[in-house]
Description:
Strand order of the largest sheet: 2-1-3-4-5
Order of helices and strands: HHHEHEHEHHHHHHHEHHEH
Number of helices: 15
CATH topology: Rossmann fold
Number of domains: 1
Largest sheet: 5 strands, parallel
Helix content: 40-55%
Oligomer: single chain
CATH architecture: 3-Layer(aba) Sandwich
Amino acid sequence: MGWIAGLLVVHGLVSAAYVQTVGHDHRAVELDRAFLEGDSDLSVLVAGASHARNGVAAEEIGGLSIAVAGEHPVKTRFRLPWLLDRSERPIGAVILELDAASLSSWKADSFEPEFVWGRYVPLLELGMLRGAPLDYAGKWAKARLVPYAGELDNLMFWRAGLRAFQDEDDLDRFRGQPPAWMRKSGEEAARLHLEGYSPRDPAKVWAFQGLVQELRARQVRVVVVRFPVMADYAATAEALGATPQVLDEVMAPLLAPGEVDQLDYSAMFYDRPGAFYDGDHLNGQGRRALTRRLASDLARLGVAL
């Protein structure tokens, strides 16, 4: 029995170490703290994944971004209300990301590290919705019982300082790449997100629409943004079934001017590959230009900046 007790002690120590490193410093958790520890008015609260994270300099327009690389609508569906339930900060509008990647079934079942995302997402209930109760029961057990299991890669990312386990800060690291390279990168990014995947994942659509409806019920202003992509990304995405009509159909029942609005910037930089650092993410120059345009359009919509 002594060896069992020893294993349990080791398990407890390793779990505690994981929680205090990866679990404490993950970008989502850091941004949660930044939101919850503040009390000043926010013009906008930006939520979503890497397109939103890299596309909007929220602090320049009196706002805050809680967007995290790798987040998708199912995660945001639960994380954003979790935050709003714990804060009374005045928010002018919530900006949500909508694009081909966010609705694709690509990584639709990804919730690593489960210890982080399991704090918001009811994994067991989601497993029933997805028709994969055993798979999601495993995710739940990993989040609650053995958070460090299979997390060596994430621990290495943590040690390297990549708190979302992706590089989302050096927006100009590929500056100067030739246009032909950038265009090819756009095509490859679209194939990564869509080739072999459904362009309309049912759970992601359910989550996105449910979140917008909940925010509206909370009387929170919503502005849905379609972020810029390269022309080659858009053409490849459409060829793979992710047409603008798919996004239009998801948005149609949600639009309510003055309560739920939409800004479509998808084609803003079709002729400017130099505004991107890869096939679908804006670089620093692109972010600054988009933020200026967004500020102007938000003011036009009556969002105080």
